[in-house]
Design goal:
The structure holds two protein chains of two kinds.
Chain A lengths: L12 E3 L20 H25 L14 H13 L9 E4 L5 E7 L2 E8 L2 E6 L4 E6 L3 H8 L2
Antiparallel strand pairs in A: 2-3, 3-4, 4-5, 5-6
Helix pairs in contact in A: 2-3
Chain B lengths: L20 E12 L6 H9 L5 E4 L7 H6 L1 H4 L4 E4 L4 E5 L2 E5 L8 H18 L2 E15 L12 E2 L2 E2 L6 E8 L2 E14 L4 E14 L5 H23 L2 H6 L5
Antiparallel strand pairs in B: 1-5, 1-6, 2-3, 3-4, 4-5, 6-11, 7-8, 9-10, 10-11
Helix pairs in contact in B: 1-4, 4-5
Classes of the chains: A alpha+beta, B alpha+beta.
Chain lengths: 153, 248
């Protein structure tokens, strides 16, 4: 049976009714094509809470969020964040918290021996902070491997 | 580096006839520091000379909160600018250039138009960063496409034949990703007629991680177009390709 109802998405064709995908159950979502490995990494390192927060930041934070100056999540910052996440070894039992910065970057924060550790992936730079050894510096975004080596080897 | 998981022909045809391309779509996903409400006003004066027919798309009627929740809607355009040769569509995070139905003008012409569009986008200055750049071709064939392809869908080593099928593959290649949709129960309504047949929908994209989208885009688009073409011709059985009168 052909499906010719007006479409909300712009596509040149429709699938016949039998071939149309069933609606997604509430508790199941398809990964974006090509990103299944990233979803797995995110869940393994940050748990369901961090996974949910990243999706939330990506989807729902339009330009001007917060008090009007917040920027949308930067794809460049996100790339560096995932590269860092793959290389980072967090202390046993630690799942860092994830935040969106005003500049559209991502910030990871956790504790090490009761003291704060933070790394922010801003659109053009990395910001590293560790209270324990007085680390407080910036690196170019491409040097995520150095940041991972320094903060969570 | 991930090579393609199948062989592609050494020589690729320049054109085939009959041409199965229904439409080609070049998509740029981006983030902007401008709220969406400001963007159409920035674009209209730039594009009106070449794309005089401006209209809102049906999705614009759906509240933003619902669009953002749905993966199929979040990166869709909301307004359209139509010109005599191409159609441009924009959304809060996407720009697409679409070729006219069944009148693909060739990649060289698409490139030329894209370069003009990217220039206008650069002048408007609303793109903060590129997120993804893609080249998608939608091809339509009468009848069942599966027996004419080198790809086989089978159960316990026996190909599935004669059943309605809709297959999606995601193929990584170096820094690009290809999403191939094959279906033998597709309905095409091109405005002039409605017909059923098979669709080969191949979207190839590159995820951005560099700042200079507008400078890098032309070379990347060329690479994505070549990859799309290699995958397409790598799927066709030689005897099927011969019926399409390839010109090299």
């Amino acid at each position: 049976m052909p499906v010719l109802a007006p479409a909300y998405t712009q596509c040149a064709y429709r699938l016949a009714e039998n071939l149309q995908p069933p609606s997604e159950p509430d508790r199941l979502a398809h990964a974006e094509p090509g990103s299944a490995a990233r979803e797995e990494l995110l869940l393994a390192k940050l748990g369901p809470r961090g996974w949910g927060r990243l999706h939330h930041f990506r989807r729902f934070y339009s330009p001007g969020w917060g008090e009007g100056r917040g920027r949308s999540l930067s794809p460049r910052a996100t790339e560096a964040f995932f590269s860092f996440l793959a290389a980072a070894r967090f202390p046993e039992g630690v799942q860092p918290s994830l935040f969106l910065t005003d500049e559209g970057g991502l910030e990871l924060a956790w504790e090490e021996n009761g003291e704060a550790v933070q790394v922010a992936f801003q659109p053009g730079r990395l910001e590293l902070y560790r209270k324990g050894d007085g680390t407080d510096r910036e690196l170019p975004l491409q040097r995520w491997d150095e940041a991972a080596q320094h903060l969570c080897p | 580096m991930n090579p393609l998981p199948f062989l592609t022909p050494e020589r690729l045809p320049k054109r085939i006839d009959p041409c199965p391309i229904v439409e080609a779509v070049v998509e740029l996903r981006f983030i902007s520091h401008e709220p969406w409400r400001n963007i159409p006003g920035m674009l209209a004066p730039l594009f009106r000379p070449r794309y005089p027919e401006e209209s809102e798309l049906p999705l614009n009627e759906i509240p933003e909160a619902i669009r953002q929740h749905d993966n199929n809607l979040a990166w869709q355009p909301l307004v359209q600018y139509a010109g005599p040769e191409f159609t441009l569509r924009f959304g809060p995070r996407v720009l697409t250039l679409v070729t006219p139905t069944h009148r693909y003008p060739g990649w060289a012409r698409c490139q030329e138009e894209l370069s003009w569009i990217l220039e206008q986008v650069s002048r408007a200055g609303f793109v903060q960063e590129g997120e993804r750049l893609g080249v998608r071709y939608v091809d339509f064939f009468t009848g069942d496409i599966f027996p004419r392809l080198l790809l086989e869908v089978g159960i316990a080593g026996r190909p599935v034949q004669g059943l309605e099928q809709n297959v999606t593959l995601v193929i990584p290649e170096d820094r690009a990703t290809a999403r191939l949709v094959l279906a033998n129960g597709a309905v095409l309504n091109d405005g002039a007629k409605t017909e059923t047949g098979s669709v080969l929908d191949l979207d190839v994209w590159h995820r951005f991680s560099s700042a200079d989208l507008l400078r890098e885009a032309p070379a990347l688009l060329d690479r994505l177009h070549s990859l799309n073409k290699r995958i397409f011709f790598g799927l066709l059985k030689p005897e099927f390709l011969a019926t399409l009168n390839p010109e090299y």
